[in-house]
Design brief:
The protein is mostly helical. It has one domain (6-250). The chain has eight helices and two strands.
Length: 253
Amino acid sequence: MPDFGLPDEIFRFFLVLARMGAIFAIAPALGEAQISPRVRAALALAVSLLLLPVLRDHLPALPADLGGLVWLILHESLVGLMLAGAARLVLSALHVAGTVIAFQGGLAFTQQFDPTQGTQSAITASFMTFLGIVLIFASDLHHLLISAIFGSYDLLPVTGVLPMGDFAQLVVRLVAISFTLGIKMAAPFLVFGIIFNLGMGLLARVMPALPVFFVALPANILLSFMLLLIVLPAMMLLFADAFEESLRMLLGQ
């Protein structure tokens, strides 16, 4: 029969908060840098309070020694960071696609700070990343993310051993999925770039006096924007399906 004394309840709450706090620190959509740290802390507290009653059977009692207490808190923080980092890897597919689009469309020189990546990125990469975050909230995929957090207690119990080998394999798999997804999303622009450059090369051979560079650069940018308007809905739907599939993979479904 589990102990439901006040010290044990406080300890269990901080165990849940350790995992929630790590997740809300770096998780996609829920842990973005644009969200105030106070708001993220308040959300982590609220979700921890809501999940505590249903997770009580998954949580151990207060350890007798300080070492056991510190290890459990550290264990939960590491699990939260692992789950949030794995989910964020899928979001990087939008950054890959946006970077490829920028290079193919002649926009690679337009750089701006991307807070989701913490570095300078091409403007199309930043745009697609922000659009992906909006899509996650608009399609209620953040609810699935919270469900994945709840389901993680069955896959990664509090008193279990950290499966570092399995997590390393998952990271490798998600990196491959993310890069492949980014290339798939940018595939129309890769085809467009090949055809456009071949056409400009033939035009330069046929009309040597034509300043091809001055003609090609604005035409390339204009056609790239037009192509982006056409294929953007399909690209974002492809990302949404892949993001949902990755979350279900974290749930073990």
